[in-house]
Amino acid sequence: MPYVFYLYISFFAVGYLFGSIPWAFVLGKMNGIDIRKHGSGNVGATNVRRTLGKRWAILCFFLDFMKGFLPILLLNQFVSSGIIEKTDFGVVIIAAASVAGHMWPLFLNFKGGKGVSTIAGILLAVAPLSLLTGGLAWVVVFYSSRYVSLASIAGAVILPISAFTFAHFKIGNEVPLPSLIMLTLLSLLAILRHKGNIKRLINGTESRFEKRVKQNECEEEK
Prior knowledge:
The protein is mostly helical.
C-alpha cells in the first residue's frame, strides 16, 4: 500500500484517540461523581457547569477545545519541519477524527458529547475568522434567549456560511475547499446531535440556562 495511506490512517488514529478522552467524565470522577448520572447526563461542558460549577466547566470546555486544536497544530508542526508533506486531506481527516472521538468516544462505549467545543478548536486552527463569527452568533443568541442549545445551533448554521463567504472574498487566511466542505459537514453533524434539543425548543419544553438550577433539569449541550 502507498505511504500516504498509512499516513492518513495514522492521522485518523491520533485524532480519534485524542478526541475520545472524555474530559467531562474525568472531571466528574475527580469530584467523586459519574457525570452521566447527573444533570442532563451529557458528557460535555454545559452539564459540567450545571453539576460541578463554572470553573470546572471552563476547564472542561478548554480541554475539549484542545481536542480539535492540538492535533491540527501538531500536524502543521510536522509539515513545517519537513517531516511530512503538506496535505489538505490530512487536516480534514485528523479534524473529523477528533470530532468523531468526542461524539463517539472509545472509552465511554461510544456515547459522548455533541462536539461544539471540539469543532471550535478545529476552527481556531483552520478558519479563525469563522470561529469569531460563529462565536458572536452564539453570544447574541444565548444572551437574548438563554438557550445554550439554540445558541450552539445558531453558531453551527453561521459557521459554513461565514467560511464560504470569507473564502469567496479572500478575507483572512486561505481555507482550501476540502476544509470548507469538512467544516460544513461538521456543522450539520453538530446540528443533528441537537435533535433532542430542537424537538424541545419546538415543543416549548427546553430548559433555559440559569445561574442556579435544579440538579434534574435537562438541558443537553456541548
